[in-house]
Amino acid sequence: MSRENANEEGDPGHGGPTNGFRARIVAFFCNWCTYTAADLAGVSRLKHSPHFRIIRVMCSGRVDPQFVLEAFARGADGVLIGGCHPGDCHYMEGNYKCLRRFHLLKRVLGDMGIAAERLRLEWISASEGERVKTVVNELVAQVTALGPLGMPGRFADWDLEMKHLEAAVAGAGGGGEAVAAGPEAARGREEAVIHVG
Questions:
Q1: pTM (predicted TM-score)
Q2: 172 with 140, same domain?
Q3: Whole domain around residue 101: which residue ranges?
Q4: DSSP secondary structure letters along 100-135
């Protein structure tokens, strides 16, 4: 069972659907299209969820995967990336670069046990204020249904797990003699350490 599925069952350390949970969404918006559309949504007084914060970038191609990982690490429950429609990028191919990074990020997040639904990429032009409202509301509802991600709490759990593993390795003799005895002995030592934790 993945970490994300365990969370949905109400693991108290990491959430799951809880009463009063308000999803925290970080949105990286392209300056030329999606940010302008968000501004249009505001000027048009379109009602959307207030549980997201916009970070303006000059181009969606400027959104480094590290930005997304850092947002999750600092407590975001979901991340939205918005850019110009393909073919309309002010920097020619920035949105294609973003699309390649997005697919890479989906795989990395999956390996970390984070549901793919917590990351979303949308192409929104400057005139699509209504689309910003719709996408934001959909993502907030989706992430709220998933429950809090709780990455800072996960880091504490991972640190504790590492301490247990280090103690198990130290209690098993440190592993130095296993390496000297050959790869078969080292492999047996690793299996023993895994079962101890």
A1: 0.73
A2: no
A3: 3-13+23-149
A4: HHHHHHHHHHHHTT--GGGEEEEE--TT-HHHHHHH
